[in-house]
Task: inverse folding
């Protein structure tokens, strides 16, 4: 949908089952949107990646999560302001196109699509490896194929089924973290289990202090912590299919502080109090290690199931978002027209199908050649995810300036402290990108970005040439492009 095709005064409050302005069915209710928002902030970055961050910074990793959590809240409130101005499924790609130009919208849409394709590849592959925890005889490729086909089938039924699956995926993750916090509190206060004699909040400062690796060690973990929050912006992609976006989306976004406080900061405080930070190591889930130290024999298996759920949830979200991004690009003349089509249930099946095909091919590549070439592709997901955040913040700054001048209507959900909070968030992301260049392990992410930028640049020049021959503005939707897309 082009910016000119949108009714700026539409309230976005269609009843459940009605079609949105983009042709999607509004099948995601408040309960599902809330859990999608929660699930987007809890993933393998917490369950697995926190182990490396703890080993690098010690207890001060708690402060790193708190600072990054504040930045994430600024990003989400900036997105919320834009969503209340115009709730569309294209979300930040559409906002980038409107406020920063058609090229930025083009880059954002295709980059976010690639982000989820690559993420889907890695998550489905990871899920297949988690299955081997219970049965090593199951081939990794077979489990990956089953998971991919099953999730694809679910995404072909209806958006309501997708939302329901994400609801239960998120419930598993939330229940696991709350359970871990309660068990940990019991160990600390009541002293039961193998770790009862040593568990204490004093572990947060008794082993080299709160900053055992110095301020520098804490700063170097910021990039890892940022990566853990990738996909929190997914709630914005649901705008075109939420039953009441003007009410539901602000509620979901306003829960960001307590979600981060409970599921990240709260969980890490308990884990690092139950077990000294010196016990944790990269590549090992801190949750698994904490259960082992407590002495719960089923703990490792439970956490493995939760991490499996987190991986499948991420892959499911990837399939959902890729189809919507491709359709938004196609509706704006920046992608193949085939992707504008919707199924009878209002689903972008062609875009989702092509994306899933890419995911299947990626699983095959990962199985056959799990070498450095594949690692370069996977590493790109991190920088591409942060690009979406940059576009959200820059678009919100441009929108607020225009709204203040009376050129656009004011949003009903203004970002507090803007423009200063958005500028701070942009500066923080810039600092993290610079630090990625300093860290040899993260530098690989920056190598892939210029290659992708070159590919997109060539693609956009081709679109400009095509549009010029047709007498259109670069990236504008063709005159015969449907607003809602044709039905299959």
Result:
């Amino acid at each position: 949908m082009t910016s000119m095709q949108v009714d700026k005064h539409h309230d976005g409050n269609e009843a459940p089952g009605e079609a949105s302005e983009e042709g999607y069915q509004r099948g995601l209710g408040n309960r599902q949107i809330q859990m999608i928002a929660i699930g987007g902030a809890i993933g393998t970055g917490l369950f697995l990646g926190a182990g490396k961050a703890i080993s690098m910074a010690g207890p001060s990793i708690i402060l790193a999560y708190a600072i990054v959590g504040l930045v994430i809240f600024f990003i989400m409130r900036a997105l919320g302001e834009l969503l209340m101005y115009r709730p569309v499924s294209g979300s930040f790609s559409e906002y980038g196109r409107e406020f920063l130009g058609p090229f930025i919208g083009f880059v954002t849409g295709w980059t976010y699509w690639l982000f989820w394709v690559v993420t889907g590849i890695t998550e489905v592959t990871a899920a297949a490896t988690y299955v081997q925890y219970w049965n090593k005889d199951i081939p990794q490729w077979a489990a990956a194929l089953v998971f991919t086909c099953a999730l694809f089938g679910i995404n072909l039924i209806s958006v309501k089924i997708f939302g329901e699956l994400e609801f239960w995926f998120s419930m598993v993750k939330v229940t696991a973290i709350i359970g871990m916090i309660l068990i940990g509190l019991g160990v600390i206060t009541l002293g039961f289990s193998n770790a009862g004699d040593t568990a204490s909040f004093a572990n947060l400062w008794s082993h080299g202090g709160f900053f055992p690796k110095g301020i520098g060690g804490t700063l170097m973990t910021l990039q890892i912590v940022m990566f853990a929050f990738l996909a929190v912006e997914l709630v914005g992609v649901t705008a075109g299919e939420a039953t009441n976006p003007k009410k539901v989306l602000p509620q979901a976004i306003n829960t960001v502080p307590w979600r981060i406080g409970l599921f990240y900061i709260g969980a890490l405080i308990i884990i690092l109090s139950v077990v000294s930070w010196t016990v944790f190591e990269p590549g090992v889930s801190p949750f698994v290690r904490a259960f082992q130290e407590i002495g719960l024999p089923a703990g490792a298996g439970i956490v493995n199931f939760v991490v499996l759920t987190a991986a499948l949830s991420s892959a499911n979200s990837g399939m959902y978002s890729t189809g919507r991004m491709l359709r938004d690009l196609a509706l704006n003349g920046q992608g193949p027209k085939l992707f504008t089509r919707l199924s009878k249930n209002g689903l972008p099946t062609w875009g989702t199908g092509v994306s899933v095909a890419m995911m299947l091919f990626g699983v095959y590549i990962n199985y056959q050649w799990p070498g450095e070439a594949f690692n370069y592709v996977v590493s790109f997901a991190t920088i591409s995810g942060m690009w979406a955040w940059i576009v959200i913040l820059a678009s919100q700054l441009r929108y607020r300036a225009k709204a203040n001048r009376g050129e656009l209507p004011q949003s009903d959900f203004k970002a507090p402290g803007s423009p200063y909070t958005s500028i701070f968030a942009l500066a923080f992301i810039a600092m993290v990108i610079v630090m990625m260049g300093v860290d040899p392990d993260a530098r690989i992410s920056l190598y892939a970005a210029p290659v992708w930028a070159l590919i997109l640049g060539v693609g956009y020049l081709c679109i400009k040439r095509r549009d010029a021959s047709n007498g259109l503005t670069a990236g504008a939707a063709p005159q015969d492009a449907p607003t809602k897309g044709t039905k299959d």
